Amino acid sequence: MIHERVTGNRVIRTVLPAETETVAALHVRARATYYPDGLPDDGYDWATAWRTAVERPDGHVLCVVEHGRMVAVASFRAPEDAPSGLVKLYQFHVDPDHWRSGIGTALHAACVEQWRADGLRTAVLDVHTGNRRAQAFYARRGWFPDPEHPHAEDDHHLFLRFDVPGE
């Protein structure tokens, strides 16, 4: 498990339970960018959801801290009843003020490194159809439409797949 990797002023590490409010705020800020009228207030308690993700013994939540400030977060684990070797990237968010700075690329590389270390060979995710920036980001890293989950017209998500490279 990645506990901490330092590169210059950037640290990639495991999120601590005490940081879930910070993670939730970053998540909401990043997600709001692809909703035309802002993120809908559905009353969902994102801090509790992130605390649950952080405390799961079967999952990983990584963050990027730059100059002492959390600027990106990713959460992944094997979905229940998933075939062996499969991991799902549930959340991946970079603070909008830090887009196009290499932070997302570094965090994605750390995720792939962990998947490889865990012996995982396939990653899946779903991305909102209105989030073109994320779709382009994932495509540049080798993600492709998941043939096992074709996009339905009434669905607001695209399902993507990634072949984890071997060592």
Question: Can you put this structure into words, describing what you see?
Answer:
It is a single chain. With 167 residues, this protein is of the alpha+beta class. Helices cover 28% and strands 31% of the residues. It has one domain: Aminopeptidase (3-Layer(aba) Sandwich), CATH 3.40.630.30. It is built from four helices and eight strands, in the order ββααβββαβαββ. An eight-stranded mixed beta sheet has the order 1-2-3-4-5-6-8-7, sandwiched between helices. A hairpin with a 2-residue loop joins strand 3 (59-66) and strand 4. Helix 1 (20-31) crosses helix 2 (46-55). It is globular. The two termini are 16 Å apart.
Please sum up the structure shown:
The protein is α+β, with helices and mostly antiparallel strands. It is 28% helix and 31% strand. Helix 1 crosses helix 2.
